[in-house]
Structures are given as C-alpha cells and as structure tokens.
UniProtKB/TrEMBL annotation, chain A:
The keyword Plastid does not apply. It comes from Actinoplanes italicus. This is Serine/threonine-protein kinase RsbT. The keyword Transferase applies. GO terms for molecular function: kinase activity. Keywords: Kinase, Transferase. Residues 13-112 form the Histidine kinase/HSP90-like ATPase domain. Transmembrane segments: none annotated. InterPro entries: HATPase_C_sf, HATPase_dom.
UniProtKB/TrEMBL annotation, chain B:
Pfam families: RsbRD_N, STAS. InterPro entries: Bact_StressResp_Reg (IPR051932), RsbRD_N_dom (IPR025751), STAS_dom (IPR002645), STAS_dom_sf (IPR036513). It comes from the Bacteria. The keyword Phosphoprotein applies. This is RsbT co-antagonist protein RsbR. The keyword Phosphoprotein applies. Keywords: Phosphoprotein.
From TrEMBL, chain C:
Pfam families: STAS (PF01740). InterPro entries: Bact_StressResp_Reg (IPR051932), STAS_dom (IPR002645), STAS_dom_sf (IPR036513). Residues 2-113 form the STAS domain. It comes from the Bacteria. The lineage of its organism: Bacteria, Bacillati, Actinomycetota, Actinomycetes, Micromonosporales. This is RsbT antagonist protein RsbS.
Length: 112, 278, 136
C-alpha cells in the first residue's frame, strides 16, 4: 500500500494520512465485519493520479450510518474516531452498507 | 475522418513535388500572423521541418494523426507548441501556425472547380485540422505544467522558516495565504522544529492581509500538531481587522498564546525558557 | 512476537520503538512497562516514537493508557520524537492525546522530566513545577 502511495507521488504527509486511514478502516473490517477483503489500486482522472483502497466485509453492517460517522461514537469500546477520522484523512469517502449484508468502504486520496 | 491509403499516397507525392513552394508560402503566412516576432529564417526552418514531417507521415502510410508513421510528426508538433508556449505566444497564434498550412495547400492543389481536387482538399484539411488541434492541446498542457512549476517555485520562495533564538524558530508570513500555501508553510515549520530541536515556534502574521476560516483552521491545526510533537506555538502580529474577522467567524483560538508583535512573542518565549530552565 | 526493549537509565525508563506497532506489540509493551516501573521504582518514562511512520487511533490510545497507568504508579510519561506527518495526521484524525506530555526528542524529554526532579529534591512534594503545568 505504501509502495502504491509512493508510486503515485503522494506527499509524505498524504502518504501518512492514507495509510493511517487504511489502518483505522482495516481494524473496523476486522473488529466489526469479522474480517474481509482489502483491495488497493492506482487510479487516474484527467489530471491527477491517486490511490484507491476498498474494504469489504460480510459482517452485520451499520444500522445508523450518521451516528456511526459521529466523532466519539463507538460500539466496540474504541475512541470512536475510526470512521469519522478516516473520512477526514482522505479526499473521497464512500460507504455502502446494509444491516445484515455487510459493509464496503471506498477511500481515495489524490495527488496534490 | 481518416484518409484512405490512396489519398495518403497522393498527398505524399503532392507535398514532395511542391515542397519549396509550400514552405515559402506557409512561412510567409506564419510570419505575417506572428507579426514578425520571430525571424523569418527561424520560421523558414520550422515550416520546412513540419512540411517534411507531414510528407513523411503520408509516405509512411499514416491515414490519421494517431497512426504509427505519424509519430515523428506529432513529436514535431509538440516541440512547436513547447517553444511557442515558452516564447510567450498565445494559443491562437500557436494553432494558426498550423492552420496556415491549409491556405498554402489550397494554392498548390490546382484547379479548384474540379470536384476531385475539392474532395482532396477537404480530406487533407481535415488532417491538418487534427494536427492543429493536437498542437493546441499540447500547448495547453505545456502552459499548465509551466504554471504548476511556477506555483511550486513561488511556494518555495514565499515560505522561509528562520531560527530566531536558541530553541525558537519563526515563520514570518507575508501575502495572501491560500489553503495550499498554508499547508506547505505549516509542514515546513513542523519539520524545522524537529531539525533544530526548537521547542518554540512563532507564527507571525503581520504581513497577512486577510484570514478566512480555512486559513485559520490550518494555523490552529499546526499549533495542535506542534503541541503533539512537544513544541509550543505563539501567534504574533494579528492586525485589528483580522482579530475582528476571527471573532466574527467564531473561530476559537482557545488557549493559544497570541502576542501583538514578533518582539513581544520573542520576549514571552525567552522568559518562558528561563522559567523552565531549558 | 517481537517485543519492544525497555532500558533503564538512572531514574528513567527509555523505550525506543523501532518496530511496527502491531496491536499485540502495543498491548505487550503496556504490560511490560507497568511491571518494570514497579520493579525499578523509576519516576520517569520516555517513549521515543521517532521511528514510527504511522500512529493510528489504537496506538494513540495505547500511549494514553501507558501514560495513565504510569501516573498511577508515580511515574511521568513523555512521548518524544513524533514526526511532523504523524502529528498532522493525528490532528486530522481528531486524536489530541490528552494527558500525554510530549517533547521533540529524547534529550528534551529527559530535561522535561529532570525539571520535576529538582522540585522533588527541594522538598516541595505534592506541588507541581509551574513550568510543567503550562505545558498541559
């Protein structure tokens, strides 16, 4: 993941942000989703390169998304900063969840 | 629409047999459109190179500008855009240099009342149009990268972080602070704290005409980040209008130390250093 | 599993984290430190994280827990050497590590702990150095 981040020429701070966000989300996938899949890809739009990471699990899903994205809210005894904090660390944050079906989170960080 | 292989062959012959006439006319037209800002000897060289480029593309069997045999021609066109962009010509002037080729071609095609000739002209001018568009495109790309380079240079130039005293560094911010610049300044400030192992930083904003919410956020985040690293930030030189904006925007500076001037800030820091014996 | 070594220097325990802080490593360190503080009776702990290029909320939380546990055991914890990129990321993440004292490097961290020492020697027990308070 770090290699891809370096490959698309993300600045050191941006590398740190995306890897930290990934660490938060991977922990969520593990703790709440009961494990799942992570996919890292390089992406391009017409002017910039970036890195996209997708976390997918078949866990219980998130019932109240707004609440889950609130700073300090947690059901797992953490600090409640995983989702909300990760969202602040990336440029694009997309979450697709359904109770009982699992959760897929896609994050993108673009080169500045 | 791409050319037929037959057309490409015929155009190659046409360009070769009228090479001199075409180049002369083309050079004349370009010289006029650029209003003598480039010497005609230089333009003569450029147009004859390009004319040869077109000819070789056609004789190599290129039916479209994207084809393999046209590689060389595309490289020449990019090169042209590159030099025009760096010499300060605008996009129209650059593209017109290629469009002028059509006028020159029309003159060598012969009897224009002939339907076949007219079809040929339409076909070849389509090809030249694509070449001109390609030139235009690369012109824009080159200008964009020029601008990006300059912006970066400007950022480098405008963000000095200076050591003011043993254990004290300062960033005198001058000029408008946009979000990108604020970010660069702040990253550099934090790195300097580490490099010089200075536990105090003074951010002087005397030279900043205005502060919006985003910039204030950046400054605040920097102060918090510096604290996490074990350093204290003092903000100095807040002008009356900026103080008003900060309050009006509802930005909380909280317990961050603010001082009227850089001198006050330095005095404050030095007395703190003495107190804690560092 | 790899373990983070804990060194004793005078009245201070020095922990220099040179490996990836996986969850297990972090929890093990928390346990080890508590035991060593009691066993050695030191009054200061310095955790050097200058080699860490990532500090996520779990590691942040562990550091905070270490600081709290140490305080209960009468040892002050200073986290030193946080990289700028890590600090910026933690701010964005919303983690301000309350209750943790920080310094730029090991040397400044030792100086920070040392200033407390002088007060103790002077016999002002129960009172904290005012210079230390300003840095909360």
């Amino acid at each position: 993941m770090r290699t891809v981040a370096v490959g698309v020429k993300l600045s050191l701070v941006d590398q740190t942000k995306i890897v930290t966000a990934a660490s938060e989300l991977a922990r969520n996938t593990l703790v709440y989703g009961g494990g799942g899949e992570v996919e890292v890809t390089r992406v391009h739009n017409d002017r910039r390169a970036g890195i996209r990471i997708v976390f997918a699990d078949q866990g219980p899903g998130i019932v109240d998304l707004d609440l889950a994205l609130t700073d300090g809210y947690t059901t797992g005894g953490g600090l409640g900063l995983g989702l909300s904090g990760a969202r602040r660390l990336v440029d694009e944050f997309d979450i697709d969840t359904e109770p009982g079906k699992g959760t897929t989170i896609t994050i993108v960080k673009w080169c500045r | 629409m791409p050319l037929s292989p037959d057309e490409a062959r015929r155009f190659a012959v046409l360009l070769e047999s009228h090479a001199e006439q075409l180049t002369a006319r083309w050079t004349e037209l370009v010289t006029r459109s650029l209003r003598n800002r480039l010497s005609s000897a230089e333009l003569q060289r450029q147009t004859s190179d390009l004319q040869r480029g077109f000819q070789q593309a056609f004789s190599g069997g290129a039916t479209d500008l994207g084809d393999g045999p046209a590689d060389e021609l595309r490289a020449q066109l990019s090169e042209l855009s590159n030099s025009r962009a760096r010499q300060g010509f605008n996009a129209t002037e650059t593209a017109v240099s290629i469009y002028a080729f059509k006028d020159a071609l029309l003159e060598v095609l012969g009897d224009q009342s002939d339907a076949a000739t007219l079809r040929d002209y339409v076909a070849i001018s389509g090809f030249v149009d694509r070449a001109a568009l390609f030139t235009f495109d690369s012109y824009v790309r080159i200008r964009e990268s020029l601008i990006a380079d300059q912006t970066e240079q400007l950022l480098e130039l405008s963000t000095p972080v200076v050591k003011l005293w043993e254990g004290v560094v300062a960033v005198p911010l001058v000029g408008t602070l946009d979000s990108a610049r604020a970010q660069v300044v702040m990253e550099r400030l934090l790195q300097t704290l580490v490099d010089t192992s200075s536990p105090y930083a003074i951010i002087d904003i005397t030279g900043v005409p205005a502060v919006d919410t985003q910039v204030a956020q950046h400054i605040l985040k920097t102060v918090v980040a510096a604290r996490l690293m074990g350093a204290d930030c003092i903000i100095s030189g807040i002008r009356p209008q900026i103080a008003q904006t900060i309050v009006a925007l509802g930005i909380e500076f909280g317990d961050i130390a603010t001082k009227a001037s850089l001198a006050d800030a330095l005095r404050h820091v030095i007395s703190r250093t003495k107190q804690s014996g560092r | 599993m790899e373990r983070v070594p804990v060194l004793k220097i005078g009245d201070i325990l020095l922990v220099s984290i040179q490996i990836d802080m996986e969850d297990q490593v972090a929890l093990q360190l928390q346990e080890d430190l508590a035991e060593r503080i009691v066993a050695t009776g030191v009054h200061g702990v310095i955790i050097d994280i200058s080699a860490l290029d990532i500090v996520d909320s779990f590691v942040g939380r562990t550091l905070a827990a270490i600081a709290s546990v140490s305080r209960v055991l009468d040892a002050e914890t200073v986290v030193v050497g946080m990289r700028p990129a890590v600090a910026i990321t933690l701010v964005e993440l919303g983690l301000s590590l309350p209750g943790i004292r920080t310094a730029l490097n090991v040397e400044l961290g030792i100086a920070m702990l040392g200033s407390r020492e002088t007060v103790d020697v002077l016999g002002d027990e129960g009172e904290t150095d005012p210079a230390v308070l300003t840095r909360e």
